[in-house]
Amino acid sequence: MTAAQEDSVGATPLIELRNITKVYGEGGLAFQALKGVDLRIEQGDFVAIMGPSGSGKSTAMNTLGCLDRPTTGEYLFKGAHVETLTRDERALLRRRFFGFVFQGFHLLPRTTALENVELPLLYRGEPTAKRHAAARKALAAVGLTGWEHHTPSELSGGQQQRVAIARAIVTEPVVLLADEPTGNLDSQRSGEIMELLWRLNAELGITVLMVTHEPDMAAYARRIVRFVDGLLDSDHANPAPVMLAREALAAAPFGEAL
Ligand SMILES: Nc1ncnc2c1ncn2[C@@H]1O[C@H](COP(=O)(O)OP(=O)(O)OP(=O)(O)O)[C@@H](O)[C@H]1O
Ligand SMILES: [Mg+2]
């Protein structure tokens, strides 16, 4: 358990979903994507969200990230009711506390890595010098020092996803939401992105919620939640996240490691 998790034991969870439902469309075309989801997420958690296509993972992520409102149910963020907020209030909450990473990177083309990472700060109205400094720091945190002035077309897929992660953390979010962040990457690059997410969680204490279809990637998380048909099907701690197992192996005397 991390220090952040120890602090939060018994306290209000960072996030709590209570009987959340989501219906898309109306009348005969209505589709219930979430059918009553309860979920508690503690500060400092690293959760992999798995489940078949169409099971409601992205819908749940959009709700968790305050991008979309549930149809019914309660969403508490640090004890505050999100479901009652207006669209503008939700946007403020989102910009203050959340960072987002998607499968398809979503970087602006013909725009340098530095400018892409600065964008959320530009929306916040931060002055130029502060934006530059924060973006350089975020790029350094994802291992891209020296690549600040490259545009996305001059970067590999793995590097582009690192830029997208730098853009997501430049605002110092409490929660990082990643919907299939390794979906467009080969296994080597995927592993590197997962190591990065692990470090952001373990070293910076950022709560990470990540959708993945790949068990190898879910194995990096501290907890694995599975959706089936709009409901939470299982929720269990991962006793040996990849990076902890790797650290334990590295620390063990040579004979024991073999
Ligand atoms: N905007 C929308 N309008 C109507 N139906 C939607 C909308 N978004 C999602 N759905 C439906 O809700 C269900 C859940 O979709 P969701 O995107 O949450 O699934 P998912 O688990 O993320 O799947 P995948 O693994 O394919 O990304 C699907 O049947 C989908 O067709
Ligand atoms: Mg999805």
The proportion of residues in beta strands is: 15-25%
- Biggest sheet descriptor: 6 strands, mixed
Based on the coordinates given, report the CATH architecture: 3-Layer(aba) Sandwich
The secondary-structure element order is HEEEHEEHEHHHEHEHEEHH
Number of strand segments: 10
Largest sheet, spatial ordering of strands: 6-7-8-3-9-10
> What gross morphology would you assign?
globular
Radius of gyration: 19 Å
CATH homologous superfamily placement: P-loop containing nucleotide triphosphate hydrolases
Return the domain count.
Answer: 1
Mean pLDDT across every amino acid position = 93
First and last CA, distance: 26 Å
Bound small molecules, deduplicated:
adenosine-5'-triphosphate, magnesium ion
Identify the CATH class. Alpha Beta
* CATH topology group: Rossmann fold
Per DSSP, the total helix count is 10
| Helix content class | 25-40%
Low-confidence stretches: none
Domain ABC transporter: 15-254
Protein name: ABC transporter ATP-binding protein
GO molecular function, one term: ATP binding
Keywords: ATP-binding, Cell membrane, Membrane, Nucleotide-binding, Transport
